[in-house]
UniProtKB/TrEMBL annotation:
Domain Acyl-CoA oxidase/dehydrogenase middle: 122-218
Domain of life, source organism: Bacteria
Acyl-CoA dehydrogenase/oxidase C-terminal domain sequence ranges: 231-379
Start and end residues of each Acyl-CoA dehydrogenase/oxidase N-terminal domain: 6-116
PANTHER family: ACYL-COA DEHYDROGENASE (PTHR43884), ISOVALERYL-COA DEHYDROGENASE, MITOCHONDRIAL-RELATED (PTHR43884:SF12)
Family: Belongs to the acyl-CoA dehydrogenase family.
Alphabetical keyword list: FAD, Flavoprotein, Oxidoreductase
UniProt-recorded name of the protein: Isovaleryl-CoA dehydrogenase
The keyword Methyltransferase appears for this protein: no
Residues of the signal peptide: none
Length: 386
């Protein structure tokens, strides 16, 4: 087995690290606490072409391999996980349009999305349906050349910038199973009846907004039906979520790495009983555990990314997302403990890591639901563990 990055990946990671160290880490704590939108960081990511990481070169994107894609999220989350959120659902939606859109849809949207002139997100969740996406209530009724869309989406990341927003709808609410009547529409935000109604208050994941969107008789042109065929919406969404799980696994590694770095730095400089606390075995047990768990999580994230390169990989991406997100949470808690009382202070970085880490076990499929996905994948023989 070859665990080495190729030359391009090494150079790309060095570039990302330098960007994160220079542009994100120095401002993350202040901007996160003040709720300031990170406009300058978005500009920097735009200049680096990061809004086009999942877009083919012919439409102006970087078309990264999945391991390099993972590196983007790992490195940015090391600086500030909320910033990774700005790129996350944008990249998944772009990939979904690139893989599933009609040629006309790709030509219309992808070049601007790659340049970051347009941005996007993904509108699946509703107030009464998250895990159970077949239970959504948003409908799209065909009326001449348009779909008339009605419903409410919630927790939508990047909602205030997304244009178009891919929205999961029921084009036929009567089918059994329900997914056969589900489709994705690319909804432009300037349409009448499309309104971002509120920003949801949240524990962490600041820097990017999470909003409720109401669609009230929004008339969406028929040509904005993703792929041009009804009934494929859930499949489109699920295929995007696979890369999403790699993205979350990688973000988790980034959070964990930062917790690790902060914990080691603090343990070396903090003195108790006239010696650095890193001399105490109780602290070393935590430090050793941090290093071990993070390296295991990192390998798993890259392994899952590599599996995606080879095709559908629900089992591998599910396992990586579960494991890495749980390592991130544990690492952030241990880093707080090593910081003693200062770990609880908003003047230090580690409390943010803790607030951000917990989301990693919820987004892109909760860890519990993913455990069932992994089990089914192994039971069916699609994933082989040996
Ligand atoms: C900050 C943030 C950003 C988000 N961004 C987006 C976004 O950009 N776009 C978007 O569409 N969504 C987004 N989401 C929504 C997210 O994907 C959902 O919250 C998640 O899928 C869980 O859905 P739910 O909240 O409705 O929980 P529920 O589905 O109600 O689940 C509640 C609990 O029940 C468990 N559960 C449910 N069904 C089962 C089952 N069959 N077996 C066992 N356990 C089960 C779950 O694991 C969970 O513990 C975001 C959420 C947050 C918090």
């Amino acid at each position: 087995m070859d665990f080495q990055f190729n030359e391009d990946q090494r150079e790309f990671r060095a570039l990302l690290r330098e960007f994160v160290d220079r542009e994100i880490i120095p401002v993350a704590r202040d901007w996160e606490h003040s709720g300031r939108y990170p406009t300058e960081i978005v500009d920097g990511m735009r200049e680096m072409g990061l809004f086009g990481i999942t877009i083919p070169e012919e439409y102006g994107g970087l078309d990264l391999d999945p391991v390099s894609f993972a590196l983007v999220f790992e490195e940015i989350a090391r600086g500030w996980m909320g910033i990774a959120g700005i790129l996350g659902s944008h990249s998944l939606a772009c990939r979904m349009i690139a893989m599933r859109g009609t040629e006309e849809q790709k030509r219309k949207y992808l070049p601007d999305l790659a340049a970051g002139v347009r941005r996007t997100g993904i509108g699946l969740t509703e107030p009464d349906a998250g895990t159970d996406l077949q239970g959504i209530r948003t409908t799209a009724r065909l009326d001449g050349d348009h779909y008339v869309v009605n419903g409410t989406k919630t927790w939508i990341t990047n909602a205030r910038y997304a244009d178009p927003l891919p929205v999961l709808v029921k084009t036929d609410p009567t089918t059994t199973p329900a997914h056969k009547g589900m489709s994705i529409l690319l909804v432009e935000s300037s349409l009448d009846g499309y309104e971002v109604t509120k920003d949801l208050p949240k524990l962490g994941y600041k820097g990017t907004e999470s909003c409720e969107i109401v669609l009230d008789n929004v008339r969406v042109p028929k040509e904005n039906l993703l792929g041009g065929v009804e009934g494929k919406g859930l499949q489109h969404a699920l295929s995007a979520l696979e890369w999403g799980r790699v993205n979350i696994a990688a973000r988790s590694v980034g959070i964990a790495q930062r917790a690790h770095d902060e914990a080691f730095a603090y343990a070396k400089q903090r003195k108790a009983f006239k010696q650095p606390i890193s001399d105490f075995q109780a602290i070393q047990l935590k430090l050793g555990n941090l290093s071990t768990q993070i390296q295991a999580a990192r390998l798993m994230a890259y392994w899952a990314a590599d599996a995606v390169r080879a095709g559908r990989a629900d089992g591998a991406t599910g396992m990586a997302k579960i494991f890495c997100s749980e390592v991130a949470l544990e690492a952030s808690i241990d880093a707080m403990k090593i910081h003693g009382g200062y770990g609880y202070s908003t003047e230090y970085e580690v409390e943010r890591l803790y607030r951000d880490a917990i989301l990693m076990s919820i987004g892109e499929g909760t860890n519990d639901i993913l455990r069932t996905v992994v089990a089914k994948s192994v039971l069916s023989g699609e994933t082989v563990v040996r």
